[in-house]
Amino acid sequence: MSRSSNTVSPGAPLRVSASALAALRLKGQLTERLAPGIAARHLMRSFVTPRKSKLPQWERDLIGQGGTTWVPAGPFGNLAAHVWYPGDRQSLMSAVPPPTVLLVHGHSGRASQMAAFAAPLVAQGYRVLAVDAPAHGHSAGRTLALPEYVNVLLELEKSAGPFAGIVAHSVGAAATVAALARGMAAGRVVLIAPPEALSGHLTRLGRLLGYGPDLAKRAQQLIEARYGERFDTLRGSALGAGLTQHALVFHDEKDRMVPISEGEALVRAWDGARLIRTVGLGHNRILRDPSLITQVAGFISNTA
Question: Which pTM does this prediction carry?
Fold first, then answer.
């Protein structure tokens, strides 16, 4: 599915030249000045419309080690997924299925982006499931907002849970926090580069497109009206204060997509959470770091 070059989502970097980015911002500034209603609607669409990109070879290699399937998600239909099992074929026929770890990608991400976590978790005896959210990867749809993503996770628990652990990235981490607050069970939780406040995420996207903070507030009102939920009800620090799961939060000090201050705010509010800072891994490369992946597998299996 192709995307317009004028649509930018908050979950992936905008890969354009400096001159093209300057032109994009100038266009945004002019649109905000001359037609703020149009600008606000554009920012809203950009915020909920994922960008798709070609799978790199490393992702293809890793998903090739597992299988593909479809997972029911209630009103969201059947979602494309990758699954990795421990053991041999005989163990797959066991009456006692292995515990499941769910991998949750971010906005404009995909299930295969989380595939590097599969092998170490499988080695610990887990079944690992990574699902393409609606409008992402091979799943159908055009848009996905955070309130919908939260409900997707709650539906996945019904059809594929319970989950012994969850490993979630970026907006997927924010959706995980909200789903946990709404009753989703999980043994242990790993959050990578979690945005704590949607309003900040929207403001940063607006700035990228040349829009000011007032325009971002106007777009926020449109999004809240469309999806029937205020951003404040999904704020990580407020939700985290009521959670009891053990959680490990990884956040890079130079993350340009979601500043580390947001991970810090979430951990301060969540008694059972601990923050590990990384340096130089950014927002997406962090998902392929061998040391981090080893720590995640150890934490989920309660060996570290």
Answer: 0.90
